User: What shape does this take?
Amino acid sequence: MSAIQAASKRPVIAITPGEPAGIGPDLMALLDYDEAVDWVCVADPDLLDERARLRGRHRPWPRYAPGVHGPSVLPVTLARRAIPGVPDPANADYVLSCLRRATEGCLAGEFAALVTGPVHKAVINEAGYAFTGHTEFLAHAAGVAEVVMMLAAGSLRVALVTTHMPLAMVPAAITAARLDVTLDILNAALARDFGLARPTIAVLGLNPHAGEDGHLGREEIDVITPAVMRAQARGIRVVGPLPADTAFVPARLAQADVVLAMYHDQGLPVLKAQGFGGGVNVTLGLPFPRVSVDHGTALDRAGTGAVDIGSMASAMALAQALSHRHANP
Assistant: This one.
């Protein structure tokens, strides 16, 4: 815990809005903030005011400073006024500046955790930035070689070996080294941050039917099964590789604390079908807790008031819990 947080005995948690034309600023403007936390909205205060006024709501935004309690704003200025539903590449630097400032604060101990709103990757790329997602950006900023993306909805948790990459690149990316470090990070984070002393990790195969004994692919035989056996030898409770089409049936899920999928769309459609709107995205392996919503920018709803705060509220609650566990390991 930083000197600022130790003095106040209250967690100071940063929130970034993500895409300014999307729903992130609406969520930040309309949320009810837990008074036990000092929430710092790293954003353009005029943007937050505008979205609040669209809903007929006025909210004073004190400027962030050490010792300011409750929600406050750490100002970052938009390049151009954000029009709800219309992303503008001119504001890509604003999106990254908000994220960069919040990340620097987390790394310095100024903030105890980070909650992120959804970004529009394509708009950031159109502006000339090589950006594949929050997970990769935060890992690079923190100087961490490997992190793990995990989404959670209720008791269902799904982690990923690979994240935002074309499907054609996935098989080559599933290496022995990546599987080893992913299983180690996942096991340690579930124990430390989620209170699971010896979590059970269900590992999926890459191919249909987990390769069908090599007839549908050899990744399970050559790479995944040896990684499972190495993890077991290190004392990690791992099962698999399991066929992905039956791994999520209730009887199987009841025996696992987390499912490790090989690629993004192998496991996340199941989780989002079961808990969309109330799920959260957690980055494991960073030196600070980072939690995000499980949905996109919802450009069609930005500025309309048709806002479901469920995922953001869940993300904020988990960030608060994780910040406490990090401060009191």
User: Anything to note?
Assistant: The first strand starts at residue 12 and ends at 16. Confidence is low (pLDDT under 50) at residues 3-8. Residues 76 and 264 are 32 Å apart (CA to CA). The chain is about 40% helix and 15% strand.
